[in-house]
Specification:
With 432 residues, the chain is of the alpha/beta class. It folds into three domains: 153 residues, Nitrogenase molybdenum iron protein domain (Rossmann fold); 194 residues, Rossmann fold, CATH 3.40.50.1980; 34 residues, no CATH class. It has a six-stranded parallel β-sheet with strand order 1-11-10-9-12-13, sandwiched between helices. Strands 6-5-4-7-8 form a five-stranded parallel β-sheet, sandwiched between helices. A three-stranded antiparallel β-sheet has the order 2-3-14, with no helix packed on it.
């Protein structure tokens, strides 16, 4: 585990270097481009090839789609406790995200014209749900629920299968609960390519959503423009800002919770104004690590992706957080300090406040979507919301009175920009 003292010269550069290591290396970009090009040309044949190569699953195109009967069977197969958990999380997600549903509006501008906006659901959306070794059941709820609230007519889900071509029952049960039945047991770059380009079996979508590993995230970046993408939510990140009031065992547990995703590209930050607290947390991380099922992969993340940052003041902590733009930010500080930090930190994907609020609550059940920007993309992206599943269209209507006021402005701009036809298109209506 590495550490820096942010008060010392060169520390800002060290932090920048650490953050840059999250950028996708050229070899990943090249590999992704090759797979996407193959899917674009060979379609289903390429998708089958890469499913076998990367997931070990022998899938003919007719086996790509999960039958509705499999979804219903999975819903019956899971335990009553799991079913209650799915429903509890779903209820919170629905309640939270309904508040973000945008509404049409109309009014008059200063020239008397009627102006406004209307919002329409995107026609066909594709949701990527990580599966395989770690089936992210919660991602179904955190994406499909929002698409349903937005009213998207067609919702497609792609998720990888195991070697036998099976998808985790909990994941299928979540899809059944939300009401999504167009599901393909395809993952990885080939799934992003299939949704972007379309194949004989998987019709193309208009926009792709959902988190993924570095390869999936890079695939979304490369297909952007042909289709829309929600953001670039890649390998997980967490930053904890802590003072002496923080529980070291809680902080360590939360750091490990994000590290256990285990891709090797996760970023884990611990920021404190207390050298003693940093030492406590590092000790707790070492103590708790051995009891984890995925301890080996988690240890690799900690070795390469953990950074402890000693700050002199919380103003420095704000500077660090706003630079990193962490996916998840925990504030394990005194309540008054937490309030100040919430106001000052403007780039975090999601903020969890207080010792009793682990990131896992946000991951699974609090209500906001856990699909959040990573790799400093929080500087310009926000977490997933219902509006991301909708298109906004402005609506403008002038009449014979209001166009007279508008024409004078058009004439001035047409002259400045030397666009005669623009000016004439308004003037002819006034003259007539």
């Amino acid at each position: 585990m590495r550490s820096i003292d942010y008060s010392k010269p060169g520390a800002a550069g060290q932090l920048a270097d650490f953050c840059r290591s999250a950028l996708v290396p050229r070899e990943i970009s090249a590999a992704v481009a090759e797979i996407l090009a193959d899917v674009q040309v060979r379609g289903d044949v390429a998708v089958s090839h890469y499913a076998a190569k990367f997931d070990g699953a022998s899938l003919a195109p007719e086996a790509f789609r999960v039958a509705p009967t499999e979804l219903r069977a999975a819903a019956k197969q899971i335990s009553a406790g799991d079913r209650r958990a799915l429903k509890a999380a779903h209820a919170n997600i629905v309640a939270f995200n309904r508040r973000g549903l945008p509404a049409d509006w109309s009014g008059r501008n200063r020239q008397g014209a009627r102006v406004g906006e209307k919002f329409d659901p995107i026609r066909r959306v594709g949701l990527y749900v990580p599966g395989g070794e770690v089936p992210l059941v919660s991602t179904v709820l955190m994406t499909a629920t929002l698409a349903k609230i937005a009213g998207c007519p067609e919702i497609v889900v792609c998720t990888p299968s195991n070697r036998a071509g099976e998808v985790a029952p909990g994941l299928l049960a979540a899809l059944e609960l939300v009401g999504v039945d167009e599901v393909y047991r395809i993952g990885g770059v080939q799934a992003i390519g299939a949704m972007a380009y379309g194949t004989a079996t998987i019709p193309a979508v208009d926009k792709v959503f959902g988190p993924g590993n570095a390869y999936v995230c890079e695939a979304k970046r490369q297909v952007f423009g042909l289709v829309g993408v929600d953001s670039l939510p890649g390998p997980s990140e967490v930053m904890i800002i802590a003072d002496e009031t923080a529980r070291a065992d809680y902080a360590a547990a939360d750091l490990l919770a994000q590290a256990e995703h285990g891709s090797g590209r996760e970023k884990i930050y611990f920021v404190s104004n207390s050298t003693r607290q940093i030492a406590r947390v590092e000790h707790e991380v070492a103590q708790q690590l051995g009891s984890l099922t995925r301890s080996e992969k988690t240890a690799r993340v900690l070795e390469h992706g953990f950074l402890a940052i000693k700050v002199r003041t919380f103003a420095q902590a704000v500077e660090v957080a706003n630079y990193v733009a962490p996916e998840h930010l925990e504030l394990l500080v005194a309540p008054a300090e937490a309030t100040r930090l919430i106001g000052a930190i403007t780039t975090a994907g999601a903020i969890m406040v207080g010792n009793e609020t682990p990131t896992a609550l946000g991951d699974f059940t609090a209500g906001p979507s856990h699909v959040l920007p990573t790799a400093r993309a929080g500087r310009f992206f926000s977490g997933l919301r219902v509006a991301d599943f909708m298109r906004r269209t402005s609506v403008v209507r002038y009449d014979r009175t209001s166009i007279r006021a508008g024409e004078r402005v058009v004439a001035a701009f047409a002259a400045m920009e030397r666009l005669d036809a623009h000016g004439r298109s308004a003037r002819i209506r006034v003259e007539k």
